[in-house]
């Protein structure tokens, strides 16, 4: 009897972890809204300059990434974007979306890693995307329930 309970609990644990890992970590349940992901990335990249939009647009990182979305000039050139126009917020966001659309990933984590190859960055952006996606869906959920 005890071994049946142990096996059942073990199976539930493995099954639960598989669902969590697939659905939450890799975000396979719904297609990624790349425009929302782009907005999350661009806001995150220059979050320390949130009070000064002019400085955000002209920001230069220690790795020479430029603009609102902090795009490295060589990356911009690889995706047929003009690096000299990255100080224009709309152009920087357009170029960031172009980079994300060229990425092969299917989850927010994979796409964030493609944008900036760092596990920490991928996890951070995936978490922020999940919050932004939930908050964006929240009014629709309430309206449907009423």
Provide structural commentary.
The chain is mainly α and 146 residues long. Helices cover 66% and strands 0% of the residues. The protein is globular and about 35 Å long. It starts with a helix and ends with a helix.
How far the N terminus sits from the C terminus, by CA atoms, comes to: 48 Å
* Approximate shape: globular
**Could you spell the SSE succession in H and E letters?**
HHHHHHH
Radius of gyration: 19 Å
Number of domains: 2
Can you give keywords for this protein?
mainly alpha, 2 domains, 146 residues, 7 helices, disordered C terminus, 66% helix
Strands, helices and their partners?
Layout: H1 2-25, H2 34-45, H3 53-57, H4 73-78, H5 89-102, H6 108-115, H7 119-145
Quick description:
The chain is mainly α.
């Amino acid at each position: 009897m005890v071994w049946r309970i142990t096996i059942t609990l073990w199976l539930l644990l493995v099954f639960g972890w598989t669902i969590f890992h697939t659905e939450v970590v890799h975000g396979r349940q719904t297609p990624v809204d790349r425009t929302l992901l782009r907005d999350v990335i661009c806001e995150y990249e220059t979050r320390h300059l949130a009070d000064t939009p002019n400085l955000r647009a002209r920001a230069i990182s220690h790795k020479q990434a430029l603009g609102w979305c902090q795009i490295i000039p060589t990356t911009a050139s690889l995706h047929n974007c003009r690096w000299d126009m990255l100080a224009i917020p709309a152009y920087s966001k357009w170029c960031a979306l172009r980079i994300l659309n060229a990425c092969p990933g299917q989850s927010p984590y994979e796409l964030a890693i493609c944008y900036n190859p760092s596990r920490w960055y991928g996890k951070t952006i995936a978490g922020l995307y999940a919050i932004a996606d939930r908050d964006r869906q929240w009014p629709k959920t309430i309206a449907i329930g009423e």
